[in-house]
Write a structure and sequence with these properties.
The structure holds 2 protein chains of 2 kinds. Chain A is built from 2 helices and 7 strands. By secondary structure, chain A is an alpha+beta fold. Chain B starts with a strand and ends with a strand. The chains are: A alpha+beta, B alpha+beta. Chains A and B meet through helix 1 of A and strand 4, helix 2, helix 3 and strand 7 of B.
């Protein structure tokens, strides 16, 4: 499936993009997302971030899950 | 879902109007307000001139909503308002406005602390601190 991935703040800056569509094959499931993104972009290993799938924090996706968005969220700075 | 974001700084006039709107609610005996202001820290010998806020707005509004619900459940409040800036806010300007009201002071004092701590920890808002030499650093809540 093709998954919409959104990057924010410092992560978006380091990747030089705020979103992309990534094909994720079903035979990768269950998939550890942190490993997946750090294989794709090794410099992320040095970064601190949370992962959200469909706006819920998680580290893993399983098969048969409809994914409308994966988000990589760097440390929060609200207030 | 309610949009808690306001473009740019939160104006003192807006805060004053919010207070005025509550004068008709005569069961209220205590208001508590928290205002977050952009501080001009010195970073790498450079002064912070502004913070450019961005957010995962949908997730952030959901988080604000959940925090509001939890606060209403936990404390006996009459009303509660939360506004956060998005976009650029200059040093000295207001970026967060939290306003709670209740019958008595103890309730609002506890509620505001609970609210502000949860907002800082749980709402996906990101802050780019713009320095006077046109470089920037990314802020992180401690």
């Amino acid at each position: 499936m093709n998954v919409q991935v959104n990057y924010f703040g410092k992560i978006a800056e380091s990747l030089n993009m705020s979103n992309e569509i990534i094909p994720i094959s079903d035979n990768l499931m269950p998939l550890n997302l942190r490993n997946f993104f750090e294989d794709r972009y090794p410099h992320l290993k040095e970064s601190s971030y949370k992962i959200a799938v469909n706006q819920e924090f998680t580290e893993e996706i399983k098969s048969n899950v409809q994914i409308s968005e994966i988000a990589l969220l760097p440390p929060f700075a609200g207030g | 879902m309610k949009n808690c974001f306001k473009n740019g700084p939160i104006k003192p006039e807006f805060i004053a109007e919010s207070i005025a709107h509550h004068q008709v609610k005569k069961n209220i005996g205590a208001h508590q307000i928290f205002l977050g202001q952009v501080r001009s820290d010195i970073i790498n010998d450079q002064e912070v001139v502004a913070i450019d806020y961005s957010a995962h707005e949908e997730m952030a509004n959901r988080a604000f909503h959940e925090i509001r619900e939890a606060t209403f459940k936990e404390f006996d409040l009459t009303c509660m308002h939360v506004y956060h800036s998005i976009g650029e806010v200059k040093a000295g300007e207001i970026c967060l406005f939290v306003f709670v009201s209740s019958k008595h002071r103890k309730m609002v004092q506890k509620a505001i602390e609970y609210l502000v701590e949860r907002i800082k920890e749980e709402v996906p808002v990101f802050g780019k601190e713009l320095l006077e030499d046109n470089t920037h650093v990314w802020k992180e809540n401690k």
